[in-house]
Amino acid sequence: MPRRLVELPLLRRLKPGLYVHDEEALNAEPGLELLDEPITPIDAFFIRNNGALPEIDPAREWTLTIDGEVERPRVWTLPELRATFETVTLTAVIECAGNGRSQFSPVTDGLPWRLGAVGCARWTGVRLKDVLEHSGVKPSAVYTGHYAPDRQISDPAKPALSRGLPIAKALAPETLIAFGMNGEPLAPLHGAPLRIVAPGFPGSAWQKWLDRISLRPHEHDGEKMCGTNYRLPIVPVRPGEAIADSQFAVITDMPVKSLISHPTHGFISAVGSTLTVAGYAWSGSIPVESVRVSCDGGESWREAELLPGEGPFAWRRFTADFAIEKAGPLMVLAQARDRDGNVQPLDAAPWNPRGYCNNQVQRVSGAAR
Ligand SMILES: Nc1nc2c(c(=O)[nH]1)N[C@H]1C(S)=C(S)[C@@H](COP(=O)(O)O)O[C@H]1N2
Ligand SMILES: [Mo]
């Protein structure tokens, strides 16, 4: 019998530290203290679902169909995929495009994510490129379309999500069809048995419960690919202003960003002690170059020490020490910069109707006593 993957009480046991935004679709994020590790543990990892969890019949063998603009369409079983293609493991950040949405003003539509809809994991799978090339990619293929069995809650006839990748990203060596996460078989909540891993691209491009990839002769137009869904205005917009769909473009590489995982809001530092500010920095395709940290609300800054990441798609640990000399309020900020000189905005990121890509500098308030 098909069954719903995970019920809420089970989620609370599996991921006890997560704040649940939405019980029906199961959307949940960790507190930032749970993200203070180079590899995010699975029980601290955020969950994002656009629809109901799919009903998966364990008795039916899972297959992955490759069709569309290919010479030789093909249906794969999991053992066939594993036996035919090289298995690779890479470390990559996945961040929901809506992470930080609650900090936009005025508020926008969408789940009011705080800052926890991000994590860094080790992903194991086969290269999407290898699987597509085995079918013979036609020159007419410019985009992938990804399909999965999960359905919309308000309209179960419709898929919850069907996103895709520009063909260059689909054929890039880092893009995977994954079946493992952090050395374990991929968990049902994270898309088992198969999901896309598209390092640097928004989480929405990382299709879970993948059962079909169709190569498209134009940009994919599946569920949540069009209109304002996971698309940003290509011109500045003011809140409330009407703008045509043609003025939006699909989000591809995510902007440079950092997260302060220590200390957390409301911290107290003793006068005479050292405050160590620590966290992680990452970006889409342009490497992170530096992080600077302030503990006086941005009056003065110090370059953080930045450790190498576990490969080019992982986040990088930063730390900065401050001598706490006098009592009073403290306001900790971290600002990452990428190699092209892009920095996190100190105040608001550009406002957009659906509240995507908010990489504004995080502020953590505390006090010295
Ligand atoms: N089939 C399917 N895949 C999906 C989604 C979905 O709703 N359905 N949500 C996407 C979004 S918006 C995000 S941010 C990531 C979240 O991955 P996670 O739940 O493993 O953290 O999955 C993506 N893949
Ligand atoms: Mo997302």
TrEMBL record:
Instruction: Indicate the segments forming the Oxidoreductase molybdopterin-binding domain, all copies.
Output: 51-222
Q: Which residues cross the membrane?
A: none
Against InterPro entries, the record matches this protein to: Ig_E-set, MoCF_OxRdtse_dimer, Mopterin_OxRdtase_euk, OxRdtase_Mopterin-bd_dom, OxRdtase_Mopterin-bd_sf
The UniProt record lists the Moybdenum cofactor oxidoreductase dimerisation domain at 250-364
GO biological process terms on file: sulfur compound metabolic process
Task: List the Pfam families.
Answer: Mo-co_dimer, Oxidored_molyb
The protein's UniProt keywords, in alphabetical order, are: Metal-binding, Molybdenum, Oxidoreductase
Q: Which Gene3D superfamilies match?
A: 2.60.40.650, Oxidoreductase, molybdopterin-binding domain (3.90.420.10)
Organism ancestry: Bacteria, Pseudomonadati, Pseudomonadota, Alphaproteobacteria, Hyphomicrobiales
The record's PANTHER family line, in alphabetical order, gives: SULFITE OXIDASE, MITOCHONDRIAL, SULFITE REDUCTASE
| Organism name | Bosea lathyri
Name-wise, this protein is Sulfite dehydrogenase (Cytochrome) subunit SorA apoprotein
Query: What's the cofactor?
Result: Mo-molybdopterin
Give one GO term, molecular function aspect: molybdenum ion binding
